[in-house]
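Hi P.,

Sorry for the delay on this. The queue was packed all week, but I finally got your sequence through. Input first:
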Amino acid sequence: MNDVFALFFIFFFLIGSMVWWLFRDACKAVKIALPLKLALFLGSIVFFATVYSMLYPYIKDDDEIIVPHKPERDVTGQTVVLQPQPLPPPETPLRAPTPRLDTAPEAPEVRKARGRMSKELGPEGGIISAEKLRLVIRDIEKQYGMKTVRTALGEVIGGRAGSLTFGAVQWLQKNYGQMNGRLKLYQQVLDSHLPGARLLDSNFDGKLDENDTVFVKETSGLVTAQPLGAALRDRVRIGAAIVEACRELARAKSGFAPIAVQRVNERYWRDSSKSGFFDLREGVRSSEAIHDALTHPGDYRIHSNTAIVLAYYNAVLKLIGPEHFDKRFDRIALGPRFLATDVLQRHIESDSNPSPAAGAAHLQVGDTGHVAGLPGASVINLGGGKLYCHPLGITSEKAIIAWLKKRIESYSDFKPYLTKKRGSLKSDVLRYENAPLE
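Then the structure:
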């Protein structure tokens, strides 16, 4: 476009100079005044600009004409944002750009990487060690890149899960199966259900789903592989959410108080008719009240039992999201136990006859227990020998017992123990996650 502008300028300059040269004697004879000369000069500029603006649409480069497009929806209902596209050549009929759908054809690189991986790992049924896996995959990764290898791994390894050694599973976990940084947390929960088991993201999509594979090493040394399954997947999800909720409470470090003199933020809670309980104020969303307890710990002084209730509320909030939480749990009450009027009470599985046990090892991750004695303390098992107990935070059973002994030195016959199970969060709470909000 700039080249065309320059050509027009030179063209009009030459024409103007030629005309002035041919009629210079006439102009001198007539003795044109200076203002008229300026007027003629300005007029020529206006004439030039007018002609150029009229011809501009015809001389502008086609590849600079941009037509914006609004977002459209594909057949699946997913919004596809279309980037501005250049107009095709004039002789080509105009047509709308084709949206790029998620179901795009498989890239040739993925197909080639998968074929080479299957060939170099050997026939199905053969043992795949960590060293063999490392040599094959790293070599293919150099040629096709990590993203392509990750896509190809899902089908190749998913169909040969039973051929992997325990070392190969650990290598895959470390290099390709971190599940967006959550693998360690999932392993922590899974270990309380299947001690020593290893979880592998079989399709390497970074998500926890029922088709992921669990590897268990038998005492004989053999490794068995089995699908995670929907039931165990839900338990792992719930346990992971409870662990994260307890970590947030431990970081908040709110104060401690006996049940009768607890204190909360009165902007979100009001005293209940039941001693030691606080009801949600009118017009306050449940998710906001839980968030306030975590972000303004200085406004809260609560008992260890109340902290357990708060942790469970926070875990459910993480699992189903604030919109579903506000709709389904709009009558929450903060206190040392779940009230019968609270919807969450229906999703708590209580042990009606908790028997004494040797320690926290008898609890699964996310289960609540009680270090009995006078006055005792409620805890949540986090796995790995760690418990959450307010106000100590995340600590060991031994430290909790020492804390209790210090508080009740006058009781010489104090014999603390951890109950086998006091309660747990049922998996059916997850049904609210995808329930209609209407």
